[in-house]
Amino acid sequence: MNLALTLVIQGVVFFLVAWGVMIFFWPYLMGKIEERQKKIAEGLAAANRGQKDLDEAAARAKDILREARDKAAHMVEQAGKRSTEIIEEAKGTAVTEAQRLIAHAHEEVALERTRAREGLRHEVGRLAIAGASRLLEREIDERTHAQLLDKLSAEIARG
Amino acid sequence: MLFGLRVEEEASGGVTGYIKHHLTHLSVESGRGAFWSIHLDSILFTLVISSIFILVLALAARRATSGVPGKLQAAIELLLEFVDGMVKDTYRGTNKFIAPLAITIFCIVFLENFMDILPVDALPAAAKLFGVEHLRTVATADLNTTVGMALGVFLLIQWVGITHKGPRVFAGEWFTAPFHAHGTVMTVLLAPINFAFRIIEEVVRPLSLSMRLFGNMYAGELIFLLIACFTLDAALNHLSTYVLGVAQFFAGVVWTVFHYLIITLQAFIFMVLTIVYVGISAEKH
């Protein structure tokens, strides 16, 4: 068990190996590790970004949905209001029209009645004159007795 | 001669012979004197293990992708990031050599330690078929390996100290720390004491690094050898063979399991202490 030349050789071999590791392997493998770490970091960042985008999109979708719901509700409400309005309006128009028609009919009736009464008065007047002339056996001058006749027919019409 | 464990002559059988045989290195003498002997087995296994380590790294690097990593790449990256994190926590300098050195220390020391888990007789017996008489498979159970690494770490510590603080501050620290003095007289008085302390501090680091690893691996190897001795020279017609065989099996299992813990821990300790020493050296007192 001597300390001999062997130790020099062993030391040299050993440090040569370590030197070789430093030159050839360490930077290369470490580079790969660091590259992967960077990739992983980037991937994680991208995932975070994606998650954030997704959250934002979800929030935006929710907003849009709520807006649409509000709009729809508003539209339904408007439509309801409008339909009520239309019904009311139609009702009003119908009532006015009916009243107009009724009034018109009333007028017509009154006119008819007046006309009939006039006719009747004339008829009665004529009959009265005919009757009277027959009674008097002579022709009554319509002109001279017009005043009398009118008075008479008016009395008839009143009665 | 260290520890008086050098085996000069081939022992003649028995437990002593077996263990002595196993503790003898395959070595060649490259010159006159003990220093010039080279332990071929330690160097061979270090080279083979280093090649395996580099091969695996190369394989991982060749297929490496910054996308979804394969299993090998993931495993290596796990180790890499662990060591890198540890180095970054401890050492605040810019020396690019520290982290690769740390991972090399851990992997190579672990793999060399791992040779201890293989059956103690397997590789030496295989080597014998090719006419190789002695073969020690655990390079870290050779003091030369651990001292070689620890001396390298020692030099690195000095280098980091010089480059991080500048030669002036670095040299000054040898005489002004750990005892800080005010005034010229006290500074001069304390300088030799500080210098002595610094010498001890600097010597103790590589010494403890190398001795700890070597001691653990050497002891572990020795215990495997002792367990193997249970059925040394056993014969099928002896009852003791069967009793000791079972005992050997269980002892082997227990020690192997325990040794897994030790080899990992020792590799880890060597790496962590290297990082810590470098980290301390980079900081100003």
Could you explain how this protein is built, in words?
- The complex is a heterodimer of chains A (159) and B (285).
- Chain A is mainly α.
- Helices cover 91% and strands 0% of the residues of chain A.
- Chain A is built from two helices and no strands.
- In chain A, 12% of the residues are buried.
- The mean pLDDT of chain A is 87.
- Chain B is globular, with a radius of gyration of 23 Å.
- The N terminus of chain B is likely disordered.
- The two termini of chain B are 38 Å apart.
- Chain B has one domain.
- In chain B, α3 crosses α4 and α4 packs antiparallel against α8.
- A two-stranded antiparallel ribbon of chain B has the order 1-2.
- Chain B is mainly alpha-helical and 285 residues long.
- Chain B has eight helices and two strands; from the N terminus they run αββααααααα.
- The interface between A and B is large, with 33 and 55 residues.
Top keywords for this entry?
heterodimer, A: 159 residues, mainly alpha, 0% strand, B: 285 residues, two-stranded antiparallel sheet
Termini gap of chain A: 170 Å
Principal-axis shape of chain A equals rod-shaped
Regions with little confidence, pLDDT below 50 for 5+ residues of chain A: none
The gyration radius over C-alpha positions of chain A equals 61 Å
Q: How many distinct helices of chain B? A: 8
Order of helices and strands of chain B: HEEHHHHHHH
Mean pLDDT over the residues of chain B: 86
Oligomeric state, counting identical vs distinct chains:
heterodimer
Helix content of chain A: over 70%
Number of helices of chain A: 2
Q: Roughly what fraction of the amino acids of chain B lie in strands?
A: under 5%
Helix vs. strand class of chain A: mainly alpha
User: What shape does the CA trace of chain B take?
Assistant: globular
First-residue to last-residue Cα separation of chain B: 38 Å
> How would you characterize the largest beta sheet of chain A?
none
Give the DSSP E fraction of chain A (strand runs of 2 or more residues): under 5%
Unreliable residue runs of chain B: 1-11
